[in-house]
Amino acid sequence: xxxxxxxxxxxxxxxxxxxxxxxxxxxxxxxxxxxxxxxxxxxxxxxxxxxxxxxxxxxxxxxxxxxxxxxxxxxxxxxxxxxxxxxxxxxxxxxxxxxxxxxxxxxxxxxxxxxxxxxxxxxxxxxxxxxxxxxxxxxxxxxxxxxxxxxxxxxxxxxxxxxxxxxxxxxxxxxxxxxxxxxxxxxxxxxxxxxxxxxxxxxxxxxxxxxxxxxxxxxxxxxxxxxxxxxxxxxxxxxxxxxxxxxxxxxxxxxx
Amino acid sequence: xxxxxxxxxxxxxxxxxxxxxxxxxxxxxxxxxxxxxxxxxxxxxxxxxxxxxxxxxxxxxxxxxxxxxxxxxxxxxxxxxxxxxxxxxxxxxxxxxxxxxxxxxxxxxxxxxxxxxxxxxxxxxxxxxxxxxxxxxxxxxxxxxxxxxxxxxxxxxxxxxxxxxxxxxxxxxxxxxxxxxxxxxxxxxxxxxxxxxxxxxxxxxxxxxxxxxxxxxxxxxxxxxxxxxxxxxxxxxxxxxxxxxx
Lengths: 256, 246
Prior knowledge:
Chain A is an all-alpha fold. Chain A has 9 helices and no strands. By secondary structure, chain B is of the alpha/beta class. Chain B has a domain at 7-94 and 165-245: P-loop containing nucleotide triphosphate hydrolases (Rossmann fold), CATH 3.40.50. Chain B contains 9 helices and 10 strands. In chain B, the strands form 2 sheets. Chain B has a 6-stranded mixed beta sheet, with helices on both faces. Chain B has a 4-stranded antiparallel beta sheet with strand order 2-1-4-5, with helices on one face. The two termini of chain B are 23 Å apart. The mean pLDDT of chain B is 90. The A-B interface holds A 113-114, 117-119, 121-129 and B 52, 55, 57, 77, 80-82, 84-85, 87-89, 91-93, 95-98, 108-109, 112-113, 157, 161.
């Protein structure tokens, strides 16, 4: 039972922590310099990972779907299957999980190291609100960057799919794009892309929570990095289920 | 224990525990403006905790901590922020911000807490860096600095806002005798030229003898001796006598 009470304690603390992030977002001073630094860290430095992963995933997915659709003589559907699956689900979810791995662990480790080496105390001693200075810009950067990274994931997946298909059937780019977007509506594209802001919030706040609140010195650095990745990945997958239900409820036409 | 100068830091019956371990037990003392107090004691006796209580980075379980006529216990964030501007803190491992250069480490508090222009900030940062002998190292990141340079850089950052009170957590730990003496000289110069009150946690009795107007000895969370070096070395408490005469 002790682990259960500890779990509830964690959830409560993390909930209050996340609520504080939301409240402090709106309160001046606004840390624009820190935000731009974090956007570069979260966005720019994750771009190559997202694009390469999306491209490879797109190519592999086309190879798999081609084998199945050939059986039914429906190879013309490959671009549509590729576009719908990437824009609706694979792009947002995989981009979120990749960011949880790369950025979540980084945020957790950096903040835990700052705690262990008294850098957070040093910020407080300089009359600077360490929460607003360190946590809020990191969470906000994840929220802003993830939808854009998702778009890169979507289009690089489509490009990977096209190249894979082009090698098999020599399909023209224009025809591929035409078929790809035939079944896709704006609502299929906008709602799933915007749901990644929630994934970004989860990654930023969960990993900041583990890093910022650690009190285990050097040992806490590794623990914070691991916990950040594990918990934020798990929460992203759970949140995805809930968000899809919400999207279907709000935009019934998106249920393909 | 009489303090002639106006009191700038005072502990009144302060207690602090971590779980079952009590690190400060009913500790009371005061220190006057422009004085240097050295906190001595074995490891884990609550010396660094004392500094963190003064800076309000921790709250005591009971008792009062007065800094410049204000009780910092229970103080709101806004008043704390104002109070902390009067204090400088040299951390044990300097706690410089890894992602910023030495120059940026010093410029950060100036740009955020003062209304100085860019040129004025530049002047202050260069002057303070030169004062601590790091005038040519402003572009370096903390990882590129030696232990002694880090201490001096940490001291520079603690002094950049010209605090009324300087808290130093083991300023000479991990340094050779010569470098440690240089740090002591910097602290003493600050005290002499600006009337800065110094509260220093140290294991370096040699340095404490040189810098301290008052010495406080903590043992198992209790303040067992307080007074001048001579008073403590001739006092009744054996731990304090041993520490100061070793």
